[in-house]
Write a structure and sequence with these properties.
The chain folds into 2 domains: 2-157 and 329-343, Glycogen Phosphorylase B (Rossmann fold); 165-324, Glycogen Phosphorylase B (Rossmann fold). 41% of the residues lie in helices and 17% in strands. The chain has 13 helices and 12 strands. The protein has helices spanning 10-25, 40-46, 60-82, 93-102, 116-122, 165-170, 200-213, 242-246, 257-265, 279-286, 298-308, 313-324, 330-343, and strands at residues 2-6, 29-36, 52-56, 86-90, 106-109, 128-132, 144-147, 179-184, 217-222, 251-254, 270-273, 290-293. The strands form 2 sheets. A 7-stranded parallel β-sheet has the order 3-2-1-4-5-6-7, with helices on both faces. Strands 9-8-10-11-12 form a 5-stranded parallel β-sheet, sandwiched between helices. Helix 1 (10-25) packs parallel to helix 2 (40-46) and helix 3 (60-82) crosses helix 4 (93-102). The termini are close together. The relative contact order is 0.13.
Length: 344
């Protein structure tokens, strides 16, 4: 069959990477449409996944609205040309619109309950929606399914990803030192309206605390440009090696809920320090694997860094084992659902 995959965010690349490989191995033809946002296209290129960018990320309600119109028009042309049997995406706004218009099944995998605008634009038109079992929002009755675990089980399931120290060092990891990873986001997605992030002073103070208190090495990643004095800490390794580095860090601290979840999957404690909440971060917090912090101030972040590191190795291992129990290789599930709807 013919399958169209809609990639709009860097995390989507990892989410669909293994399902795409499995679909092609099964003889199915896969076409990828992408979006120019952060390192999305660069990651697709690094993984040697041919793709066609059909829109570029914009900021603000008006910018995102104009981008959506452009993406819908471009996707309409792609679907008319490729004639897929089924389409899938993480979020899936445009595929829901064009799928409904042209009679092509569209599948949305999603995990962000507070994306009210995106959900209103998607759920009336989507063929089927898939959410994790921690999802706390409304799902369309009669056309939705719940899967165990988080989206990270598609790429970071132990059958799909093995952390490699050599790759970590190549990406900047410093052996015999405590390494810490900080990630900042731009807060310009449709589900980020009204949310503010760290300021430069908080970032500088947290870096100083880590380097002075723990003699730690800080690896910093940011969607937005930062002042020049932070350049020393910026991640400069290959984009596809960043998770090998992260997997060997002491701790993740940052505003990205996606990367916080990835850290836990890799066995690294995570502090999600953002004025925002998600069902899956709440679930991980309840299991003692992730710590959420809405109070974005230096003392609060530093105190939490200290307390998280007081969790012993055996305690952490027990919590991880409990979290992994009963989870599936999500990449197989995604592949099977795509094939099922494409064959219907």
């Amino acid at each position: 069959m013919k399958v169209l995959i809609d990639i709009v965010h860097p995390a989507d690349v990892l989410f669909f990477l293994n399902p795409i490989k499995e679909l092609r191995k099964g003889g199915h033809e896969v076409r990828i449409v992408s979006r120019v946002k952060d390192v999305t296209c660069e990651l697709l290129d690094l993984y040697e996944l041919a793709h066609k960018p059909i829109s570029q990320a914009k900021k603000g309600v008006i910018g995102l609205g104009l981008e959506l119109i452009k993406r819908d028009i471009s996707l309409f042309k792609e679907v008319r040309d490729f004639r897929p049997d089924v389409m899938a995406g993480f979020g899936g706004v445009s595929i829901s619109h064009i799928g409904k218009l042209l009679g092509v099944p569209s599948l949305s995998f999603y995990d962000t309950e507070k994306a009210n605008l995106q959900l209103r634009l998607t759920t009336p038109f989507i063929t089927h929606m898939y959410v994790p079992d921690s999802y706390q929002g409304a799902i369309p009755p009669g056309k939705s399914s719940v899967f165990p675990g988080t989206k990270d089980f598609s790429y970071f399931h132990q059958d799909n990803f093995t952390p490699d120290m050599e790759s970590a060092v190549k990406a900047g990891f410093v052996p015999n030192k405590k390494n810490y990873f900080i990630r900042l986001v731009a807060w310009n997605a449709n589900h980020d309206f009204g949310v503010n992030g760290w300021n430069d002073q908080v970032l500088a103070d947290v870096i100083d605390y880590i380097t002075n208190e723990y003699d730690g090495v800080v690896h910093l990643s940011s969607e937005d440009e930062l002042p020049e004095h932070f350049s020393t800490y910026l991640y400069k390794g290959d984009k596809h090696l960043i998770h090998h580095l992260l997997s060997h860090c002491e701790l993740y601290i940052g505003e990205s809920a996606t990367m916080a979840g990835e850290s836990v999957m890799l066995g690294v404690p995570a502090i999600y320090a953002a004025n925002d909440q998600r069902g899956y971060t709440d679930e991980l917090a309840n299991q003692g694997l992730l710590w959420t912090l809405l109070d974005i101030q230096t003392h609060a972040i530093c105190n939490l860094i200290k307390s998280v590191q007081e969790v012993t190795g055996p305690q952490w291992d027990e919590r991880l084992d409990r979290f992994y129990e009963g989870k599936i290789n999500l990449s197989h599930y995604i592949r099977d659902e795509i094939v099922k709807h494409g064959s219907a």
